[in-house]
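Sample 3 of the quickstart, ligand protoporphyrin IX containing FE:
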Amino acid sequence: MYEWARALHIISVIFWMAGLLYLPRLYVYHWNAKLGGELDETLKLQERRLLKVIMTPAMLAALGFGLWLIYLRQDALSGSGWLHLKLFLVFLLFGYHGFLSKTRKQFEAGDRPRSEKFFRMINEIPALFTIAIVILAVIEPF
Ligand code: HEM
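Result:
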């Protein structure tokens, strides 16, 4: 059961991270799209589907299976410093997900929030977090 929970946890994490990496890229293209034009409407649809059909369900699944793993191994995991730091980083990723969701609504309303350069820069954030979180989860350094 533990191995199934771990496999399903990692699968849902991969889908969530893929969405966190891809959505800001769509915002880079959307920033220059003509209001009401064909590209504007296409990107609104893609962003809505990516967030609602893939990212949010994958985030909730990663959380669900992660909490299940904590329940299955609570004795071994209690007091694990790596898990506390990992969950803090994951908490920040929830915040990042929420920010991307709020930004989607702004583009849907016809706004052009922040700048094209801003979305190019924040695109790297989930990659850095993924490196740190996977090292913590696999190496369990402390
Ligand atoms: C959403 C909240 C999350 C919770 C509650 C959570 C919790 C856990 C727990 C308890 C384990 C099992 C640890 C063990 O038994 O040694 C685990 C494994 C793992 N987690 Fe998470 N995690 C979460 C999110 C993430 C994220 C966002 C990533 C990657 C970006 C991630 C990557 C991993 C990996 C790669 C493993 C397998 C480590 C191994 O078995 O060697 N987790 N997670």
